[in-house]
Amino acid sequence: MEIRAVNQSLFDSYHLGGLRLPNRVVMAPMSRVRAAAGGLATPSMATYYAQRASAGLIVSEGVQPSLVGQSNPGTPGLHTDEQVASWRPVTAAVHANGGRIFAQIMHGGRVSHPDTTGLRPVGPSAVAAVGEVFTPTGPQPAPVPRALETAEVPEHAESYASAARRAVDAGFDGVELHGANGYLISQFLSSNANLRTDRYGGSLAGRVRFAVDAMEATVDAVGAARTGIRLSPGGTFWGVEERDVPELYALLLGELARLEPAYVHLEATVDDDVLVALRRAWPGTLIMNPVLPMGAERAGRPDADRWLGLGADLISFGRAFIANPDLVERMRAGLPIAPEDPATYFQGGDTGYVTYPSYQHAG
Facing residues of 62 across strands? Predict the structure, then answer.
């Protein structure tokens, strides 16, 4: 593995699809569970995202494409007209501050609970996730999902495309399919959550088919330039396991390349050698999330420069954006990066959400 000299700066502009990004900093998707009843976006969400509009690109929190696709309570959706209307002030606020925003479309699959949705979760196979899922009454053991019949699978792939159409109608600049972290696409890629013997399981080609079908439907719906996907090669979130990680993801990226999406967004969930090989195999734009999501480390400028040297085009930052709405400006000027309060990640309300000041207003 060789780190090349960085001939582009984190603060250089970049053309992504039909967008000109003023810098290569991406705000990573982060669940903050502040949506109103019915999965509606709120005025506080408009403030939160608009405060961070100096990022080259914002990717929103995970947005469910259907009721059965909802993972956690308090999360927003894009499957009703009311939800679309509620997002328009959010995207308008980001655009008014000069920003660009994609909606991350997240189908939770088996990582859900009937107490949250009123529905039994679905998945590629009747195998429960490992751990407890969030419900309106607190954490509960993950239930055994209902295995999707072969004839049902296409409608769940199409649900990403339907949500993407609604996202564009709501003013989003594009969408990112959540193919990572143990949710539905990731479950199909898995070798222990996906025990199917039909065309959606078994072989490597079977395991990647759902991801490709969902991407193809979304590209057909809103265009390749408006469509990206996030992946966590080798990740073990919610108990998923993946065999043959280099071969699995090389095959997947090869299938995705023919669709020419706006980008692939990789998480640092496997050895650097594998990630660098995937970078070399991927002909398009690569967003790199340079540290393990929810791990001990928080991504910083050195991580960004390192991955720019390893071939990434854009770098995503998650937790650093929580307490630093002006993260781009702080990194550009070498200013201190403020710590966030983990107790406010998911508690709801404005505290620890829209109350972090920019550096010039911090006292």
Answer: 104
How far apart are alpha carbons 196 and 175 in whole angstroms?
28
61-83 per-position pLDDT tens digit = 999 999 999 999 999 999 999 99
Phi, psi of 101 (to 5 degrees): -145, 130
Active site (annotated) includes residue 249: no
Residue 265 tokens read as: 């967004």
314 and 287 Cβ atoms separated by less than 8 Å = yes
Nearest C-alpha neighbor of 248 from the set 285, 210, 198? 210
Distance between CA atoms of 162 and 214, rounded to whole angstroms? 10
H helix intervals, the chain: 43-51, 81-96, 114-117, 153-169, 184-189, 204-222, 245-257, 272-281, 301-309, 327-333
Residues linked to residue 263 through DSSP beta bridges, in sequence order = 228
Q: Angle, nearest 10°, between helix axes 272-281 and 245-257?
A: 20
Decide: helix, strand or coil at residue 226. Answer: helix
Provide the 8-state DSSP code for 77: B
Residue 273's Cβ-count burial label (10 Å; 0-12, 13-18, 19+) is: exposed
**Distance of alpha carbon 257 from the chain centroid:** 19
Question: What pLDDT is recorded for position 7?
Answer: 63
Distant-in-sequence, close-in-space partners of 34: CB < 8 Å, separation ≥ 6: 42, 44, 45, 48, 74, 348, 349, 353
Structure token digits, residue 271: 């050895």
What CA–CA distance (Å, rounded) separates 240 from 258? 27
Q: Give me the catalytic one of 48, 160, 183, 356.
A: 183
Tell me: pLDDT of 225 over 90: yes
259-317 pLDDT, tens digit per residue, is 999 999 999 999 999 999 999 999 999 999 998 776 767 788 899 999 999 999 999 99
Give the Cα separation of 6 and 268 in Å (integer).
Answer: 19
The length of the chain, given as a count of residues: 363
- Tokens read off for 59: 């990717």
Residue in 29, 21, 41 with CA at minimum distance from that of residue 92? 41
